[in-house]
Amino acid sequence: MTGDVLLGIDLGTTVLKVAAFDAQTGKALGVTSVRLPLRTDADGTREQDPKAIDHALHRAAGGLRRKLGKAWSRVAGVGLASQGGSAIIADRATGEPHTPMQLWSDTRPLHLLSDIAKRKPAGYWRRL
Fold first, then answer.
1. Is 26 left (phi over 0), alpha (psi -120 to 50) or beta?
2. By CB neighbour count within 10 A (0-12 exposed, 13-18 middle, 19+ buried), where does 61 fall?
3. Which of the four pLDDT bands, split at 50, 70 and 90, describes residue 77?
4. Of 54, 46, 57, 72, nearest to 17 (Cα)?
5. Which residues, including other chains, have CB under 8 Å from residue 89's CB and lie 6 or more apart?
6. Does the structure show a pLDDT above 70 at 1?
7. How far apart are CA 100 and CA 97, in angstroms?
8. How far is it between the farthest Cα atoms of the chain?
9. Which long-range contacts (CB under 8 A, 24 or more apart) does 77-80 make?
10. Cβ atoms of residues 34 and 52 within 8 Å
């Protein structure tokens, strides 16, 4: 294989996966994964530590780089998928996280939904 390589990164709720593909054929060239620590609590907390995510990305990408050898130098593009609805507050200038990542499955804000819904007419939510 001498052509371009494409990377796919999937930041999941419990596992971060990195895969490499031949850009011409789509053939998988390698994959690595690292489990992500998840903080849960009885109050509905579902959070991940941004530094742990960064560490997992470095471990997974490093493992894939070792698997690919010289082909790593032909990485021509990266695709990223992550958990929809998860959120983190970070510094605009530096990217440094100010909060843990609150996951899509965190139920602490559910009690706010009815108040938020009242701020717009029902038609707005149907169109949205």
1. left
2. buried
3. very high
4. 57
5. 97, 98, 99
6. no
7. 7
8. 58
9. 77/4, 77/6, 77/7, 77/23, 78/6, 78/7, 78/8, 78/9, 79/6, 79/7, 79/8, 79/9, 80/8, 80/9, 80/11
10. no
The residue type of 81 is: A
Starting at the edge strand found earlier in the chain, the sheet holding 15-22 runs: 28-35, 15-22, 5-11, 75-82
d(CA 113, CA 95): 29
Structure tokens at 55: 């560490």
Residue with tokens 């499955």, as numbered in its chain: 105
How confident is residue 84, by pLDDT bands cut at 50, 70 and 90?
confident
Q: CA-CA distance, 95 to 116, in Å (whole number)?
A: 29
